[in-house]
Amino acid sequence: MSSALPPAVPPDRCLVVLGASPDIARTATSLGCRVVFVQQPGSPVERIVDDHAHHYSVDFTGPAFPDFVDTVLRPLRPDAVVSVTEYGLRPAAFVNERLGLRGTPARVVELLSDKAATRERLHAAGHPTVRFTEVEDGRPAAETMRRWDSRSGVVLKPRRGTGSLGVLRFTDPAELAAVGPLPGYLMEEFIDGPEFSAETFSVGGAHQLVAVTEKHTSPSFVELAHVVPPRGLGPQDVAVVAEEVGAFLDAVGLSDGPAHTEFKYVDGHVRVIESHNRVGGDGIANLVRLVTGINLKKWSLGWALGLTRDDCRVDPEAAAAAVAFLSAPPGTVTDARLPLDLSARPGVLFARLDVVPGDAVGATGGSGDRVGTVAATGPDAHTALSRAQLAVEEMTVDIR
Predict the structure, then answer these.
(1) What is the number of domains present in the chain?
(2) Does residue 331 fall inside a structural domain?
(3) 327 with 391, same domain?
(4) What is the pLDDT of residues 220-254, one digit of tens each?
(5) What is the DSSP letter of 127?
(6) Which part of the chain is the ATP-grasp domain (predicted)?
(7) What SS3 state is found at 368?
(8) Average pLDDT of 288-296?
(9) What's the whole-model pTM score?
């Protein structure tokens, strides 16, 4: 099997991409068709636009976007409009429905972006879920927590939050009562157990489990590492994941395209945390490609243009792959260095620091405050994860 694939999309087809990163832009232009990038104002574009693409700077989350769709995009006669970023999913669905194009329906995107609505749909469909309720203030939330009498406590999260921002866990109702206003929050029972994500792709209602990712998080739920394949899940467990995540996708109405579904695996069953109609972030798609050979980014960009799984397959490069992240306390960076021998270490694919002296590290507690990344491969998941985590531990980022 070749490690490189020729363009699989006819050159006269037109693809519109909302909110592309440089990597997504490279993948889009490799498809061989016309590509139009629509970027948020202020987004750097010099690394994404080449001689074969066009670019527009438009706030696709703003009130003027429908006029742009009608006056600019409609005359281009695009064949597909896609986004693989969280903030571009709803605008992409809006464009597809407005122009009559193939894509994930807006109602499905809206449902998945609303954690409370997702829980309600699961409950109505009889899918296993946790107890949950919408809350507005810490005191009544604490009373509900007492009634639940949950041994592991509760988790509070913004109803439409992303990137682990604003996610809180409480084990003491008194502490929750002291929090005060919680506008737009959802409270759920916390479930102990290992956390994973299912990377799936659906075609005509048939859900294909491409990979399962093992996840490691901080006490504040910021993701610190991912590894493919997961440790501790055998073939029978993976079969259960495929079946039960597929049932979840049926319940929310997702029949075509990618999904990244986060879940706990408890007592031999899936307990869904949340899901998104896009590929997983944090480099998960790259881990999946290394281990399975399936390029989820390419498939996500091209499925509405007719690309199939086989069009997006190359030879796997590793038995296991992992990514680990460095976090730091809030403050100002005074020093940032990588170990000198890092690039020569077995299995280390890349190491990157995202800060330099003088940069400020925020205190939001979200994934955007991580300051470094290492990706590594190995003959098994344990080795790949150990290589990535060890390299992260040896990074130097001093904070004042």
Answers:
(1) 3
(2) yes
(3) yes
(4) 788 899 999 999 899 999 999 999 999 999 999 99
(5) -
(6) 119-305
(7) helix
(8) 98
(9) 0.91
